[in-house]
Design goal:
Number of domains: 2
Order of helices and strands: EHEEEEHEEEEEEHEHHHHHHHHHH
Largest sheet: 7 strands, antiparallel
């Protein structure tokens, strides 16, 4: 395999290499992680909130503003018994954790649709969990309706079309990129549009509520631990709460189909833009549009292979030579692999292997906030990239 670092897409300048972080203890789940109990850190807070509210607008303008704000995700409509003059007082605060978007949201009753037409144009195929505090929602996917509320968490993929309605609600929303949960994609796809309940769902709610009250104080060092703990808890909830049924693949979003194909063929020499286009039945132009937010499809593949190499190197039971891991990641020259790996994670391959052998793996650095745009749609597009 060779390092395919060039393609016909526009060049993307990589982010600055982050400084080295202290080594951390090996992650186990469930983690007893109490943000309030941690000792004070000299590191500055890592997160800045993206806030949106219709409060300062006139009642007639409020719903139009909310609809435009949510347009990258869903099309929203008012209930039949409501008019624009009634007003639409909505508040949303988003927090970007690199591989996780946490959204605090309070909105009046409305209907929502994520259509097949939106999926054809959207690069967003994240997993989505809603933790309602107030209100109930009914969401239909493939003619199957799932009801969610304070006692039932909603779980679904944004890579499939859906529609539904909600009462007045106050909730926490979790958006997680496909890559974060790729190892469990089969289970999760089969559980699309399910409700999560039981003891593990309660533990997830309590954990997220604990994180919520400390979002403005979290440091960059803490973010990867929190993201992966939430990820493990979501997978555990799905595993315990859902009796999987076969997903309907024809309705799958194009981005999700592309991700599935890439992950299934990540170590193949024949994984190229042309092979992906043939497998999905789309043009190169369309493929590049899908992966524009990721810096191009080859850049996306390169990052996924580097992440796979990171996992191998941090695994103390994996004794493969670094040269073999580099070749599997698409690099013929060890120097090129070391340079790309160090730039992506802030540590050399040898440092990660040494930390893994000592059972003190180093979490990959959180993406710098400067990559984000200024809208909710920008943050959804940037999630995980």
């Amino acid at each position: 395999m060779s390092d395919r670092s060039t393609e016909s897409e526009p060049d993307k300048h990589p982010a600055e290499v982050p400084g080295k972080q202290p080594t951390l203890e090996r992650r186990r789940w469930p983690r007893q992680f109490d943000v309030q109990a941690t000792s004070p850190s000299s590191a500055p807070p890592a997160l800045t909130a993206l806030r949106f509210s219709t409060r300062e607008l006139t009642p007639a303008e409020q719903f139009h503003a909310w609809r435009a704000h949510m347009a990258p995700l869903v099309e929203v409509t008012l209930p039949d018994d409501k008019s624009l003059d009634d007003g639409f007082l909505a508040n949303q605060t988003a927090w970007y954790l690199g591989k996780l978007l946490i959204v605090q949201q309070r909105v009046p009753a409305h209907s929502y649709t994520r259509s097949r037409a939106m999926l054809r144009l959207s690069p967003i195929d994240h997993w989505y969990v809603e933790l309602p505090r107030i209100g109930r929602a009914w969401t239909e996917v493939d003619r199957r309706v799932a009801e969610s509320g304070p006692d039932k968490l909603a779980f679904r993929s944004l890579g499939y079309p859906y529609r539904g309605r909600t009462t007045d609600s106050d909730a926490i929303l979790l958006f997680m990129p496909y890559d974060l949960l790729a190892d469990d994609a089969g289970l999760l796809e089969a559980a699309n549009n399910s409700t999560l309940s039981g003891n593990l769902a309660t533990l997830l709610i309590n954990y997220v509520h604990g994180i919520e009250s400390n979002l403005s104080r979290l440091t960059a060092e803490e973010l990867p631990r929190i993201v992966h703990t939430i990820r493990d808890m979501v997978v555990a909830c799905v595993s315990s709460s859902v009796a999987p049924a076969t997903a309907t693949l024809p309705n799958m979003g194009m981005m999700e189909r592309a991700h599935r194909y890439i992950h299934s063929n990540l170590q193949s020499d024949t994984l190229t833009p042309d092979s992906i286009c043939r497998a999905l039945g789309i043009s190169r132009t369309r493929l590049y549009q899908l992966f524009g937010a990721s810096g191009g499809v080859l850049n996306y593949i390169r990052k996924r292979r580097l992440l796979a190499a990171y996992a191998d190197l941090s695994d103390p039971t994996n004794n493969r030579p670094i040269s073999e891991i580099a070749e599997a990641a698409g690099f013929d020259l060890a120097a090129n692999f070391t340079r790309a790996f160090s730039h992506e994670f802030g540590f050399s391959p040898r440092e990660i292997r040494k930390a893994g052998a000592a059972e003190h793996p180093v979490p990959p650095a959180a993406p710098p906030e400067r990559r984000l745009g200024g809208t909710f749609g920008d943050w959804l597009n940037a999630l995980g990239n």
